[in-house]
Amino acid sequence: MRFYENSEDNNADRQGIDMMRKARTILKQTFGYDDFRPFQGEVIRNVLQGRDSLVIMPTGGGKSLCYQIPALVFDGLTVVVSPLISLMQDQVEQLNACGIAALVLNSSLPPAVYRENVRRIRENEARLLYLAPETLLLPRILSLLSDIRVDCVTIDEAHCISEWGHDFRPEYRQLIAVRERFPGAVCVALTATATPRVRQDIKTSLCFRHSADFIASFNRDNLFIEIARKSYPVEQTIEFLRQYPGEPGIIYCFSRRQVDELSEILADEGFAVLPYHAGLNPEIRQINQERFIRDDIRIIVATIAFGMGINKSNVRFVLHFDMPQNIESYYQQIGRAGRDGSQAHCLLLFSDSDIRRIQYFNRRKGEAEQEIADAHLNALMDYIKTGTCRRIPLLGYFGETYAEPGCRMCDNCRTGGDGAADQPQYGRLSAGKTAAKPRAGRPARMRRGLLGGFFGKNTG
Ligand SMILES: [Zn+2]
Predict the structure, then answer these.
(1) DSSP three-state, residue 108
(2) From CA 347, how far away is CA 457, in angstroms rounded?
(3) Taking the model in full, what pTM does it have?
(4) Which of 168, 276, 345, 349 could join 230 in a cystine, given CB atoms 3.0 to 4.6 angstroms apart?
(5) What separation in Å is there between the alpha carbon of 415 and the centre of ligand 1?
(6) Cβ neighbours around 237 below 10 Å, total
(7) How sure is the predictor about 177, in pLDDT bands with cuts at 50, 70 and 90?
(8) Cα 234 to averaged position of ligand 1 atoms, centre (Å)
(9) Cα of 404 to ligand 1 centre, how many Å?
């Protein structure tokens, strides 16, 4: 972890020590942990001292406790802004199960529940309030909160605030005004991925003053990273899947149509596979996701719509059937593999028509947006074409220097260093390097559809 202090104000007074003692008691008694995970304690101390904190760490690394514990130490309310209603609901339920007075306000609540939640906020009965940004910005909510004491404003998925991020959301931009509404509240911004530029954007937008950044390493050394040119993608995919019989994994495609076609082909080939994309009936989508999480089926073929908030530890591979849009989305998607710490394989297939398709979509954007999208594409192309260890440009993109001579866990380190023989598990990477020929018997129509660089409209 890198930890940058930006403030002179460092008087760890009696009160601070007492608050940290209280934080430790809460960690043990409420959450059941004996000790803080790396840097949780430092973040919590910083927040309790009333200093803004930018926290960047991978999903599953324990980000939430960084504001949940201070919320229980503070006298006033902690407001948590998050973009996804279903995730907020899950978090609130988990907190309630620990006996914590957390609640959510959104338009989908039954009126009686909504009124009761408003009452509890007004009477200072709640410790944490979860809201979508558009809810927080409603005049009646701002007015409700201005009548009570707000001690902390937490912005989850904070990269959404930056146009240079991979998931810019205009409603997040308006959060800039929130700081002025709650001048006495400390601010915590959390995200799993942010480049140095996005990090600066977050801090400027949220008017960070006395602040510290807490940045966990972006390196996931149990992921084997491979990139290959797409020649016969269906056959390359099948050959890849056969390396991991019975193991769970995710295949990302660019469009809904590709998801449907590829999952049909793989099912015909005898793989236990289901599709996932935003065009499916929500109920079916939910069932498919749950079946994947429960290991009922092995493989989920999905658009980028899949994965947000999913914490399945035993994903053994992530295959990009199409080129991702940018390095940040790619990093998030491969980050869903190997969360249990065991090795996992990430293969990205790319082709010239993938590049042309992304360029085509970029050209349809407005001027400023197009410039950003082109910069993202160029960075991704540099990463794909690099002859050095993949971890150098990948981590470099997030402002981190990879100083090892080689990782032995990427295709370039293996072929460059002739280390293939040392890595029996990953010795069979012919899926990418030597394209298998199409096998007889598969419908040519489908193969053409998947091979062609068609311009699918529905990418969600
Ligand atoms: Zn390497």
Answers:
(1) coil
(2) 24
(3) 0.74
(4) 349
(5) 10
(6) 26
(7) confident
(8) 27
(9) 9
CB-neighbour burial class of residue 11 (10 A; exposed 0-12, middle 13-18, buried 19+): exposed
Ligand 1 center to 350 CA (angstroms): 19
Q: Which H helix or E strand runs over 143?
A: helix 139-146
Q: Decide if 44 contacts 36 (C-beta within 8 A).
A: yes
Q: Let me know the angle formed at the C-alpha of 283 by 280 and 289, rounded to the nearest 5 degrees.
A: 80
Question: What is the helix (H) or strand (E) element at residue 104, kind and residue range?
Answer: strand 102-104
Residue 51, amino acid: R
**Strand, helix or coil at 55?**
strand
Please report where in the chains the tokens 């309790």 appear, as a residue: 48
The CB-side HSE value for 134 (13 A sphere, CA atoms) comes to 8
Torsion, CA 409, CA 415, CA 418, CA 423, rounded to 10:
40
Q: How far is the CA of 10 from the centre of ligand 1 (A)?
A: 40
pLDDT at residue 60, rounded to an integer: 67
Give the list of residues 6+ apart from residue 87 with CB closer than 8 angstroms, or none: 308, 309
Residue 62, exposed/middle/buried by CB under 10 A (0-12, 13-18, 19+)?
A: middle
Q: 3-state DSSP call for residue 284? A: helix
Hey, what are 152's tokens?
């902390």
- Residues near 139 by Cβ (< 8 Å), separated by ≥ 6? none
Residues having C-beta closer than 5 Å to ion ligand 1: 389, 407, 410, 413
> Is residue 12 pLDDT above 70, yes or no?
no
Cβ count within 10 A of residue 405: 9
> Which run of H or E residues covers position 142?
helix 139-146
Question: Can you say whether the dihedral through the CA atoms of 307, 311, 312, 315 is positive or negative?
Answer: positive
Count of residues for the chain?
A: 460
What is the DSSP secondary-structure string of 7-53?
A: -S-----HHHHHHHHHHHHHHHHTT--SSPPTTHHHHHHHHHTT-EE
pLDDT in tens, 108-128: 899 999 999 999 999 999 999
* Domains of the chain and any CATH numbers: 10-215 (3.40.50.300), 223-448 (3.40.50.300)
